[in-house]
From TrEMBL:
Cross-referenced PROSITE patterns: S4 (PS50889)
Keyword RNA-binding on entry: yes
NCBIfam families cross-referenced by the UniProt entry: PS_II_S4 (TIGR03069)
Domain RNA-binding S4: residue ranges: 184-246
Biological classification of the source: Bacteria, Bacillati, Cyanobacteriota, Cyanophyceae, Oscillatoriophycideae
GO MF: RNA binding
Keywords recorded for this protein, A-Z: RNA-binding
UniProt name for this protein: Photosystem II S4 domain protein
UniProt entry tagged with the keyword RNA-binding: yes
InterPro entries for the chain: Nucleotide-bd_a/b_plait_sf, PSII_S4, RqcP2_RBD, S4_RNA-bd, S4_RNA-bd_sf
One protein family per Pfam: YlmH_RBD
Length: 259
């Protein structure tokens, strides 16, 4: 048995991580690869962190394409070889004429959940503009979804399975920048990277809208390190790059903003 309470100590997404621990125990017992549902980035980060302490369990995450946000995790004994083909996901094409009634990510997700599905069975959704969207789903819901998803907003749609090679994933838009700050405080770096005032960023931090490496941070004075990923609700992500010290003993920080 895994040390459940020790693993869950201080965990933010306790219920979701507890379910993964249950699945890990099943994998250890059956000597088979056990799959989770699709997990959000914060849950994935916590799971990978706590399972990194264990020597008997192997994790492999996959969401259908490199860089996918929502992913399933394959859990197995470390002695069992695993690869991405064992983490089953099914891409779907959702086509319709959205030229005069534009649909957003929220619209497509809402339409899918409106059929009665739960969020955990759906991975990333890739909006393609006027022609519709593509989505990643758990294989067990594909037949139901292709028969039940017939409309998004006011637009009739057709939903069909496709190959992973047919996914139209665009690389994220990014902007390289540099800032010089007196400290490596979260509010200072995030305000510079996202182009908002420091006081407004401090408000966002205290409101719980800011995460560092997918962990919610509520202290504006939190110390940021090179390699950290800062995400702000509704604004995208900011990667902290190289940090150097100037002659005036200030910090010159390389930043990459993803939209």
């Amino acid at each position: 048995m895994l040390p459940r309470e020790e693993l869950l100590k201080g965990v933010e997404n306790r219920d979701a991580v507890a379910r993964v621990i249950d699945q890990a125990e099943l994998a250890l017992k059956t000597w088979e690869v056990v799959l989770t549902d699709f997990l959000s980035p914060p849950v994935i980060a916590e799971v990978q962190q706590i399972f990194g302490r264990l020597t008997e369990v192997e994790l492999l995450a996959w969401g259908g394409y490199p860089g996918a946000e929502r992913q399933r995790i394959g859990i197995s004994r470390r002695e069992i070889p695993t690869d991405l083909t064992q983490i089953s996901v099914c891409p779907l094409d959702i086509t319709g004429n959205f030229l005069f009634d534009h649909a957003t990510h929220r619209d497509f997700l809402g339409a899918m959940l409106g059929t009665g599905l739960v969020r955990e069975k759906i991975g990333d959704i890739i909006v393609l503009g006027e022609r519709g969207a593509q989505a990643i789903a758990a294989p067990e819901i594909v037949d139901f979804l292709t028969g039940s998803l017939i409309q998004v907003r006011s637009v009739p749609v057709q939903c069909r399975p496709i190959e992973l090679s047919e996914l139209k994933v665009s690389p994220p838009k990014k902007k390289e920048m540099q800032t010089v700050e007196a400290s490596l405080r979260l509010d200072a770096i995030a305000s510079a990277g996202f182009g908002v005032s420091r006081s407004k960023m401090a408000d966002s931090i205290s409101a719980g809208d800011v995460r560092v490496n997918w962990k919610e941070i509520t202290q504006a004075s939190y110390h940021v390190n090179p390699g950290d990923l800062i995400s702000v609700s509704g604004k995208g992500r900011l990667e902290v790059g190289e940090v150097s010290v100037t002659k005036k003993e200030r910090y010159r920080i390389q930043l990459t903003r993803y939209k």
